[in-house]
Amino acid sequence: MDPNAKKTALRMIPYGMYVLTAAHPDGRVAAAAVNWVTQASFEPPLIAIGVKADSGAHALIKDTKKFALNVLGKGQQGVAFTFFKPAEKKGDTISGEPVRAGSTGSPILTNCPAYVECTLESTVEMGDHSIFVGKVVEVGLAKTIDGRADDATLWMKELGDKVFYGG
């Protein structure tokens, strides 16, 4: 397989940018920028997320069986870059971003246009990422979205060339 062709072909898959969050009752939190996300089922509503196997988010989600996916909106490139680094909780913020506890206890970033809370239904562990399949148990919108909902999402390509594309 031609490695350059592989890299180019895989980069042709469009990716939105999200912040995956989880919290443990003992106070530990995790938050990480992710982009391998897709809806997997309408009924029941399921989403699938690729999560780096050695990340703090991976460990917390496996332990608590709950997580939130915070959808980044247009113009939130700085927030995405913030969560490329390990998250730090201080008061009602994670890495300087205001949060509140969702219905599952997972942190909800209050400045994001939308969030989806899930319970972990299944895990596929292969390679350097695991696939978590979450059942959607709560959602929220910060405001009404005009036009197509996916047009309000920050796309990975909008982060520019600073982002590493694996492969």
Large-scale geometry: globular
Strand content: 35-45%
Average pLDDT metric = 91
Characterize the main sheet. 7 strands, antiparallel
Helix content: 10-25%
SSE string, helices as H and strands as E: HEEEEHEHEEEEEE
Low-confidence stretches: none
Structure summary, number of beta strands: 11
Q: Cα-atom Rg, whole angstroms?
A: 15 Å
Strand order of the largest sheet: 2-1-5-10-11-4-3
Structural class assignment = mainly beta
Please tally the helical runs, counting DSSP H or I stretches of 4 or more residues: 3
What is the distance, rounded to the nearest whole angstrom, between the alpha carbons of the first and last residues?
12 Å
Explain the overall architecture.
- The chain has 167 residues and is mostly beta strands.
- It has 3 helices and 11 strands.
- The protein is 14% helix and 41% strand.
- The strands form 2 sheets. The chain has a 7-stranded antiparallel sheet with strand order 2-1-5-10-11-4-3. A 4-stranded antiparallel sheet has the order 6-7-8-9, with no helix packed on it.
- The protein starts with a helix and ends in a 26-residue tail after the last strand.
- The model has no long low-confidence stretch (mean pLDDT 91).
Question: What secondary-structure arrangement, pairings included, does this model have?
Answer:
Blueprint: H1 3-11, E1 18-23, E2 29-34, E3 37-41, E4 46-52, H2 56-64, E5 66-71, H3 77-82, E6 89-90, E7 93-94, E8 97-101, E9 107-109, E10 114-126, E11 129-141
Antiparallel strand pairs: 1-2, 1-5, 3-4, 4-11, 5-10, 6-7, 7-8, 8-9, 10-11
